[in-house]
Amino acid sequence: MEVLRxxxxxxxxxxxxxxxxxxxxxxxxxxxVGILSISEGFMTSFEDVVEKxxxxxxxxxxxxxxxxxxxxxxxxGDFPDTVVAxxxxxxNVSAVYPTFGHMFIPEVEEMASGGALGGMGMVNGVPxxxxxxxxxxxxxxxxxxxxxxxxxxxxxGSGMAEVYLLGIGSVITIGTSDFEVVGILKASxxxxxxxxxxxxxxxxEAYGKGPTEEQPGSLNYIAIKVDDVTVAEETALEINEIxxxxxxxxxxxxxxxxxxxxxxxxxxxxxxxxxxxxxLLIGVLFILSTMLMAVSExxxxxxxxxxxxxxxxxxxxxxxxxxxITSVVAGIFGCIGxxxxxxxxxxxxxxxxxxxxxxxxxxxxxxxxxxxxxxxxGISAGLYPAWRIAQSNIVKALRYE
Length: 401
Description:
The protein has helices at 2-13, 15-52, 70-75, 83-88, 130-133, 158-163, 200-206, 232-240, 254-297, 299-307, 312-353, 364-390, 394-399; strands at 57-61, 79-80, 93-104, 121-126, 140-143, 153-156, 171-174, 177-185, 195-199, 218-219, 221-226, 249-253. The protein is an alpha+beta fold.
Protein backbone atom coordinates (compact mmCIF):
# COMPACT_ATOMS: atom_id res chain seq x y z
CA MET A 1 0.00 0.00 0.00
CA GLU A 2 2.89 2.34 0.77
CA VAL A 3 4.42 1.87 -2.68
CA LEU A 4 1.04 2.51 -4.30
CA ARG A 5 0.61 5.71 -2.29
CA UNK A 6 4.07 6.95 -3.25
CA UNK A 7 3.55 6.07 -6.92
CA UNK A 8 0.21 7.90 -7.06
CA UNK A 9 1.75 10.89 -5.30
CA UNK A 10 4.65 11.05 -7.74
CA UNK A 11 2.29 11.02 -10.70
CA UNK A 12 0.01 13.71 -9.32
CA UNK A 13 3.01 15.96 -8.55
CA UNK A 14 3.71 16.14 -12.27
CA UNK A 15 0.13 16.44 -13.48
CA UNK A 16 0.76 17.99 -16.90
CA UNK A 17 3.38 15.42 -17.87
CA UNK A 18 1.24 12.58 -16.57
CA UNK A 19 -1.81 13.91 -18.40
CA UNK A 20 0.09 14.20 -21.68
CA UNK A 21 1.43 10.67 -21.33
CA UNK A 22 -2.03 9.30 -20.55
CA UNK A 23 -3.42 11.18 -23.55
CA UNK A 24 -0.77 9.81 -25.93
CA UNK A 25 -1.28 6.20 -24.83
CA UNK A 26 -5.08 6.60 -24.76
CA UNK A 27 -5.07 7.78 -28.38
CA UNK A 28 -3.06 4.69 -29.37
CA UNK A 29 -5.47 2.37 -27.54
CA UNK A 30 -8.53 4.21 -28.91
CA UNK A 31 -7.27 3.83 -32.47
CA UNK A 32 -6.60 0.11 -31.97
CA VAL A 33 -10.01 -0.52 -30.37
CA GLY A 34 -11.73 1.52 -33.07
CA ILE A 35 -10.26 -0.31 -36.05
CA LEU A 36 -10.79 -3.74 -34.46
CA SER A 37 -14.46 -2.82 -33.99
CA ILE A 38 -14.91 -2.66 -37.79
CA SER A 39 -14.20 -6.35 -38.47
CA GLU A 40 -16.03 -7.31 -35.26
CA GLY A 41 -19.12 -5.43 -36.39
CA PHE A 42 -19.04 -6.95 -39.86
CA MET A 43 -18.82 -10.48 -38.43
CA THR A 44 -21.57 -9.81 -35.91
CA SER A 45 -23.84 -8.48 -38.66
CA PHE A 46 -23.16 -11.44 -40.93
CA GLU A 47 -23.72 -14.03 -38.20
CA ASP A 48 -26.99 -12.31 -37.33
CA VAL A 49 -28.15 -12.61 -40.95
CA VAL A 50 -27.13 -16.27 -41.12
CA GLU A 51 -29.13 -17.03 -37.98
CA LYS A 52 -32.19 -15.29 -39.40
CA UNK A 53 -32.07 -16.87 -42.85
CA UNK A 54 -33.79 -20.22 -43.11
CA UNK A 55 -31.36 -21.95 -45.49
CA UNK A 56 -28.85 -24.76 -45.06
CA UNK A 57 -26.77 -24.78 -48.25
CA UNK A 58 -25.76 -22.12 -50.76
CA UNK A 59 -24.56 -22.63 -54.33
CA UNK A 60 -22.41 -19.96 -55.98
CA UNK A 61 -20.13 -19.71 -59.02
CA UNK A 62 -16.80 -21.46 -58.60
CA UNK A 63 -15.03 -18.10 -58.51
CA UNK A 64 -16.96 -17.08 -55.39
CA UNK A 65 -16.18 -20.26 -53.43
CA UNK A 66 -13.77 -18.41 -51.12
CA UNK A 67 -16.46 -15.88 -50.19
CA UNK A 68 -19.85 -17.47 -50.92
CA UNK A 69 -22.17 -14.51 -50.36
CA UNK A 70 -24.57 -12.93 -52.89
CA UNK A 71 -22.50 -9.79 -53.47
CA UNK A 72 -19.35 -11.77 -54.27
CA UNK A 73 -21.32 -14.32 -56.30
CA UNK A 74 -22.81 -11.63 -58.54
CA UNK A 75 -19.33 -10.46 -59.49
CA UNK A 76 -17.88 -13.95 -60.00
CA GLY A 77 -19.92 -15.00 -63.03
CA ASP A 78 -22.90 -17.31 -63.37
CA PHE A 79 -23.98 -20.85 -64.19
CA PRO A 80 -26.89 -22.42 -66.14
CA ASP A 81 -30.26 -22.66 -64.40
CA THR A 82 -30.63 -26.25 -65.62
CA VAL A 83 -28.76 -27.30 -62.47
CA VAL A 84 -31.87 -26.49 -60.41
CA ALA A 85 -33.70 -29.58 -61.65
CA UNK A 86 -30.65 -31.73 -60.87
CA UNK A 87 -30.42 -30.35 -57.32
CA UNK A 88 -34.13 -30.81 -56.67
CA UNK A 89 -33.79 -34.55 -57.38
CA UNK A 90 -31.25 -35.08 -54.58
CA UNK A 91 -32.91 -36.99 -51.71
CA ASN A 92 -32.13 -34.68 -48.80
CA VAL A 93 -33.11 -31.47 -50.63
CA SER A 94 -36.51 -30.10 -49.59
CA ALA A 95 -36.56 -26.71 -51.34
CA VAL A 96 -34.48 -24.88 -53.96
CA TYR A 97 -34.48 -21.09 -54.44
CA PRO A 98 -32.54 -20.02 -57.57
CA THR A 99 -31.56 -16.34 -57.75
CA PHE A 100 -29.76 -13.98 -60.08
CA GLY A 101 -28.19 -10.88 -58.55
CA HIS A 102 -26.45 -7.84 -59.99
CA MET A 103 -24.80 -4.78 -58.45
CA PHE A 104 -25.96 -1.50 -59.92
CA ILE A 105 -26.36 2.24 -59.33
CA PRO A 106 -29.75 3.68 -60.34
CA GLU A 107 -29.76 6.83 -62.39
CA VAL A 108 -31.85 9.36 -60.49
CA GLU A 109 -31.96 13.13 -60.41
CA GLU A 110 -31.76 13.44 -56.63
CA MET A 111 -30.29 11.49 -53.71
CA ALA A 112 -30.90 12.09 -50.05
CA SER A 113 -27.43 11.01 -48.92
CA GLY A 114 -24.49 8.85 -49.81
CA GLY A 115 -21.80 9.28 -52.42
CA ALA A 116 -20.42 6.81 -54.93
CA LEU A 117 -20.50 3.97 -52.43
CA GLY A 118 -23.96 4.95 -51.28
CA GLY A 119 -25.25 4.59 -54.81
CA MET A 120 -24.28 0.93 -55.00
CA GLY A 121 -27.10 -1.52 -54.43
CA MET A 122 -27.82 -5.19 -55.08
CA VAL A 123 -30.83 -6.18 -57.18
CA ASN A 124 -31.85 -9.77 -56.49
CA GLY A 125 -33.99 -11.67 -58.95
CA VAL A 126 -35.69 -14.20 -56.69
CA PRO A 127 -38.39 -16.85 -57.16
CA UNK A 128 -41.87 -16.82 -55.69
CA UNK A 129 -41.82 -17.49 -51.95
CA UNK A 130 -38.20 -16.41 -51.44
CA UNK A 131 -39.04 -13.36 -49.32
CA UNK A 132 -41.50 -15.32 -47.19
CA UNK A 133 -39.50 -18.52 -46.80
CA UNK A 134 -35.83 -17.49 -46.82
CA UNK A 135 -35.96 -13.85 -45.69
CA UNK A 136 -38.93 -14.16 -43.36
CA UNK A 137 -37.35 -11.65 -40.95
CA UNK A 138 -37.95 -8.84 -43.45
CA UNK A 139 -41.17 -6.87 -42.97
CA UNK A 140 -43.02 -4.54 -45.29
CA UNK A 141 -43.11 -0.90 -44.28
CA UNK A 142 -45.51 0.05 -47.04
CA UNK A 143 -46.91 -1.38 -50.26
CA UNK A 144 -47.27 -5.07 -51.08
CA UNK A 145 -45.42 -8.14 -52.26
CA UNK A 146 -47.42 -8.96 -55.41
CA UNK A 147 -49.08 -12.32 -55.88
CA UNK A 148 -48.39 -13.76 -58.33
CA UNK A 149 -44.73 -12.74 -58.08
CA UNK A 150 -44.05 -11.75 -61.69
CA UNK A 151 -43.55 -8.77 -63.99
CA UNK A 152 -41.29 -5.72 -63.68
CA UNK A 153 -42.08 -4.99 -60.04
CA UNK A 154 -39.63 -4.09 -57.30
CA UNK A 155 -39.53 -4.40 -53.50
CA UNK A 156 -36.90 -2.06 -52.08
CA GLY A 157 -34.76 -2.26 -48.94
CA SER A 158 -35.16 0.60 -46.48
CA GLY A 159 -31.65 1.94 -47.04
CA MET A 160 -31.99 2.26 -50.79
CA ALA A 161 -35.46 3.76 -50.46
CA GLU A 162 -34.01 6.40 -48.15
CA VAL A 163 -30.95 7.14 -50.31
CA TYR A 164 -32.93 7.48 -53.54
CA LEU A 165 -36.08 9.01 -52.04
CA LEU A 166 -38.14 6.13 -53.42
CA GLY A 167 -41.83 5.65 -52.76
CA ILE A 168 -44.61 3.42 -53.98
CA GLY A 169 -44.97 3.99 -57.72
CA SER A 170 -41.38 5.18 -58.28
CA VAL A 171 -39.77 3.79 -61.42
CA ILE A 172 -36.15 2.62 -61.62
CA THR A 173 -34.29 1.44 -64.71
CA ILE A 174 -32.49 -1.84 -64.11
CA GLY A 175 -30.52 -3.15 -67.06
CA THR A 176 -32.79 -2.63 -70.04
CA SER A 177 -36.10 -2.64 -68.15
CA ASP A 178 -38.08 -0.16 -66.07
CA PHE A 179 -39.21 -1.53 -62.71
CA GLU A 180 -42.01 -0.05 -60.60
CA VAL A 181 -41.59 0.09 -56.83
CA VAL A 182 -44.54 -1.73 -55.26
CA GLY A 183 -43.14 -2.37 -51.77
CA ILE A 184 -40.67 -0.85 -49.32
CA LEU A 185 -39.21 -2.90 -46.49
CA LYS A 186 -38.67 -1.89 -42.88
CA ALA A 187 -35.09 -1.41 -41.69
CA SER A 188 -33.61 -4.73 -40.61
CA UNK A 189 -30.04 -3.73 -39.79
CA UNK A 190 -28.76 -6.26 -42.35
CA UNK A 191 -27.31 -6.16 -45.85
CA UNK A 192 -30.86 -6.50 -47.18
CA UNK A 193 -31.40 -2.81 -46.38
CA UNK A 194 -29.17 -2.08 -49.39
CA UNK A 195 -30.97 -4.52 -51.68
CA UNK A 196 -33.76 -4.63 -54.22
CA UNK A 197 -35.93 -7.67 -54.83
CA UNK A 198 -37.70 -8.46 -58.10
CA UNK A 199 -39.05 -11.57 -59.89
CA UNK A 200 -36.21 -13.81 -61.09
CA UNK A 201 -37.26 -13.93 -64.74
CA UNK A 202 -37.65 -10.13 -64.94
CA UNK A 203 -34.11 -9.49 -63.63
CA UNK A 204 -32.63 -12.16 -65.88
CA GLU A 205 -34.27 -10.59 -68.93
CA ALA A 206 -33.25 -7.08 -67.86
CA TYR A 207 -29.61 -8.16 -68.09
CA GLY A 208 -30.00 -10.44 -71.11
CA LYS A 209 -29.57 -13.56 -68.99
CA GLY A 210 -33.03 -15.06 -69.38
CA PRO A 211 -33.70 -18.52 -70.83
CA THR A 212 -34.16 -18.73 -74.60
CA GLU A 213 -34.58 -21.53 -77.11
CA GLU A 214 -30.85 -21.47 -77.76
CA GLN A 215 -29.56 -21.32 -74.20
CA PRO A 216 -30.65 -21.74 -70.57
CA GLY A 217 -31.07 -18.87 -68.15
CA SER A 218 -28.27 -17.76 -65.83
CA LEU A 219 -28.04 -17.92 -62.04
CA ASN A 220 -25.33 -16.86 -59.62
CA TYR A 221 -26.78 -17.91 -56.27
CA ILE A 222 -29.01 -20.74 -55.07
CA ALA A 223 -30.40 -21.09 -51.54
CA ILE A 224 -31.27 -24.63 -50.47
CA LYS A 225 -33.19 -26.15 -47.58
CA VAL A 226 -32.62 -29.75 -46.55
CA ASP A 227 -34.68 -32.30 -44.66
CA ASP A 228 -31.85 -33.46 -42.39
CA VAL A 229 -29.35 -30.75 -41.51
CA THR A 230 -26.99 -33.28 -39.88
CA VAL A 231 -26.06 -34.59 -43.33
CA ALA A 232 -26.06 -31.17 -45.04
CA GLU A 233 -22.32 -31.47 -45.70
CA GLU A 234 -22.82 -34.72 -47.58
CA THR A 235 -25.64 -33.13 -49.58
CA ALA A 236 -23.39 -30.21 -50.52
CA LEU A 237 -20.73 -32.65 -51.73
CA GLU A 238 -23.34 -34.45 -53.82
CA ILE A 239 -24.34 -31.15 -55.44
CA ASN A 240 -20.70 -30.43 -56.24
CA GLU A 241 -20.47 -33.78 -58.02
CA ILE A 242 -23.41 -33.19 -60.38
CA UNK A 243 -22.12 -34.15 -63.80
CA UNK A 244 -21.32 -31.24 -66.07
CA UNK A 245 -21.34 -28.59 -63.31
CA UNK A 246 -18.24 -29.44 -61.27
CA UNK A 247 -16.17 -26.68 -62.87
CA UNK A 248 -18.75 -23.87 -62.69
CA UNK A 249 -20.35 -23.98 -59.25
CA UNK A 250 -19.58 -24.59 -55.59
CA UNK A 251 -22.05 -25.77 -52.93
CA UNK A 252 -21.34 -25.13 -49.25
CA UNK A 253 -23.20 -25.44 -45.98
CA UNK A 254 -23.98 -22.27 -44.06
CA UNK A 255 -21.65 -23.43 -41.29
CA UNK A 256 -18.86 -23.58 -43.85
CA UNK A 257 -19.77 -20.11 -45.13
CA UNK A 258 -19.53 -18.67 -41.61
CA UNK A 259 -16.18 -20.39 -41.05
CA UNK A 260 -14.75 -19.03 -44.30
CA UNK A 261 -15.90 -15.53 -43.60
CA UNK A 262 -14.47 -15.87 -40.10
CA UNK A 263 -11.08 -16.75 -41.62
CA UNK A 264 -11.23 -13.75 -43.95
CA UNK A 265 -12.16 -11.45 -41.09
CA UNK A 266 -9.39 -12.99 -39.02
CA UNK A 267 -6.97 -11.81 -41.71
CA UNK A 268 -8.66 -8.40 -41.65
CA UNK A 269 -8.25 -8.24 -37.87
CA UNK A 270 -4.54 -9.04 -38.28
CA UNK A 271 -4.16 -6.19 -40.77
CA UNK A 272 -6.09 -3.86 -38.48
CA UNK A 273 -3.95 -4.88 -35.53
CA UNK A 274 -0.77 -4.34 -37.59
CA UNK A 275 -1.94 -0.80 -38.32
CA UNK A 276 -2.73 -0.31 -34.64
CA UNK A 277 0.71 -1.64 -33.70
CA UNK A 278 2.28 1.51 -35.11
CA UNK A 279 0.28 3.68 -32.76
CA LEU A 280 0.94 1.24 -29.90
CA LEU A 281 4.68 1.53 -30.51
CA ILE A 282 4.36 5.30 -30.30
CA GLY A 283 2.51 4.83 -27.02
CA VAL A 284 5.32 2.66 -25.62
CA LEU A 285 7.88 5.28 -26.60
CA PHE A 286 5.68 7.91 -24.96
CA ILE A 287 5.71 6.08 -21.63
CA LEU A 288 9.39 5.17 -21.93
CA SER A 289 10.49 8.76 -22.56
CA THR A 290 8.27 10.02 -19.75
CA MET A 291 9.59 7.51 -17.24
CA LEU A 292 13.21 8.16 -18.25
CA MET A 293 12.67 11.88 -17.80
CA ALA A 294 10.89 11.31 -14.50
CA VAL A 295 13.65 9.16 -13.01
CA SER A 296 16.37 11.51 -14.26
CA GLU A 297 14.70 14.32 -12.30
CA UNK A 298 14.45 12.17 -9.16
CA UNK A 299 17.97 10.76 -8.94
CA UNK A 300 18.76 12.62 -5.67
CA UNK A 301 15.33 11.72 -4.26
CA UNK A 302 15.89 8.04 -5.03
CA UNK A 303 19.44 8.27 -3.64
CA UNK A 304 18.06 9.69 -0.37
CA UNK A 305 15.54 6.87 -0.17
CA UNK A 306 18.31 4.33 -0.69
CA UNK A 307 20.52 6.06 1.92
CA UNK A 308 17.85 5.68 4.63
CA UNK A 309 17.50 1.98 3.93
CA UNK A 310 15.04 1.59 1.08
CA UNK A 311 15.90 -1.56 -0.87
CA UNK A 312 16.58 -1.59 -4.62
CA UNK A 313 13.54 -3.81 -5.17
CA UNK A 314 11.27 -1.19 -3.59
CA UNK A 315 12.60 1.48 -5.96
CA UNK A 316 12.18 -0.89 -8.89
CA UNK A 317 8.58 -1.66 -7.88
CA UNK A 318 7.85 2.04 -7.41
CA UNK A 319 8.79 2.95 -10.99
CA UNK A 320 7.03 -0.09 -12.46
CA UNK A 321 3.86 0.72 -10.53
CA UNK A 322 3.97 4.34 -11.71
CA UNK A 323 4.21 3.14 -15.32
CA UNK A 324 1.45 0.58 -14.70
CA ILE A 325 -0.93 3.12 -13.16
CA THR A 326 -0.29 5.49 -16.07
CA SER A 327 -0.95 2.78 -18.66
CA VAL A 328 -4.08 1.40 -16.96
CA VAL A 329 -5.63 4.86 -16.66
CA ALA A 330 -4.66 5.49 -20.29
CA GLY A 331 -6.17 2.13 -21.25
CA ILE A 332 -9.49 3.00 -19.63
CA PHE A 333 -9.65 6.36 -21.36
CA GLY A 334 -8.47 4.71 -24.58
CA CYS A 335 -11.31 2.16 -24.45
CA ILE A 336 -13.80 4.96 -23.91
CA GLY A 337 -12.24 6.79 -26.85
CA UNK A 338 -12.40 3.58 -28.90
CA UNK A 339 -16.14 3.26 -28.23
CA UNK A 340 -16.62 6.86 -29.36
CA UNK A 341 -14.46 6.23 -32.44
CA UNK A 342 -16.49 3.14 -33.33
CA UNK A 343 -19.67 5.23 -33.19
CA UNK A 344 -18.05 7.82 -35.46
CA UNK A 345 -17.02 5.06 -37.88
CA UNK A 346 -20.60 3.76 -37.96
CA UNK A 347 -21.95 7.25 -38.63
CA UNK A 348 -19.28 7.81 -41.29
CA UNK A 349 -20.18 4.56 -43.05
CA UNK A 350 -23.85 5.46 -42.91
CA UNK A 351 -23.16 8.90 -44.39
CA UNK A 352 -20.86 7.63 -47.16
CA UNK A 353 -22.85 4.52 -48.09
CA UNK A 354 -26.33 5.78 -47.31
CA UNK A 355 -27.16 2.75 -45.17
CA UNK A 356 -26.14 1.65 -41.68
CA UNK A 357 -26.19 -2.14 -41.97
CA UNK A 358 -22.47 -2.32 -41.15
CA UNK A 359 -22.01 -1.16 -37.59
CA UNK A 360 -18.67 -1.04 -35.80
CA UNK A 361 -19.07 -3.06 -32.60
CA UNK A 362 -16.87 -2.85 -29.50
CA UNK A 363 -17.29 -6.13 -27.64
CA UNK A 364 -16.13 -6.84 -24.06
CA UNK A 365 -13.34 -8.93 -25.57
CA UNK A 366 -11.97 -5.90 -27.45
CA UNK A 367 -12.20 -3.75 -24.31
CA UNK A 368 -10.32 -6.34 -22.25
CA UNK A 369 -7.74 -6.57 -25.04
CA UNK A 370 -7.34 -2.78 -24.94
CA UNK A 371 -6.69 -2.79 -21.18
CA UNK A 372 -4.27 -5.74 -21.43
CA UNK A 373 -2.35 -4.06 -24.25
CA UNK A 374 -2.11 -0.86 -22.22
CA UNK A 375 -0.88 -2.84 -19.21
CA UNK A 376 1.78 -4.62 -21.28
CA UNK A 377 2.83 -1.28 -22.78
CA GLY A 378 3.23 0.28 -19.35
CA ILE A 379 5.19 -2.58 -17.79
CA SER A 380 7.43 -2.98 -20.87
CA ALA A 381 8.19 0.72 -21.05
CA GLY A 382 8.84 0.95 -17.31
CA LEU A 383 11.33 -1.93 -17.02
CA TYR A 384 14.43 -0.13 -18.27
CA PRO A 385 13.92 3.13 -16.33
CA ALA A 386 13.14 1.11 -13.19
CA TRP A 387 16.24 -1.04 -13.55
CA ARG A 388 18.41 1.96 -14.35
CA ILE A 389 17.40 4.01 -11.30
CA ALA A 390 17.40 0.98 -8.98
CA GLN A 391 21.01 0.19 -9.93
CA SER A 392 22.27 3.76 -9.45
CA ASN A 393 25.10 4.39 -6.98
CA ILE A 394 23.87 5.93 -3.72
CA VAL A 395 26.80 8.34 -3.30
CA LYS A 396 26.61 9.57 -6.89
CA ALA A 397 22.85 9.90 -6.61
CA LEU A 398 23.15 12.10 -3.51
CA ARG A 399 25.65 14.34 -5.32
CA TYR A 400 23.52 14.49 -8.52
CA GLU A 401 22.57 18.00 -9.63
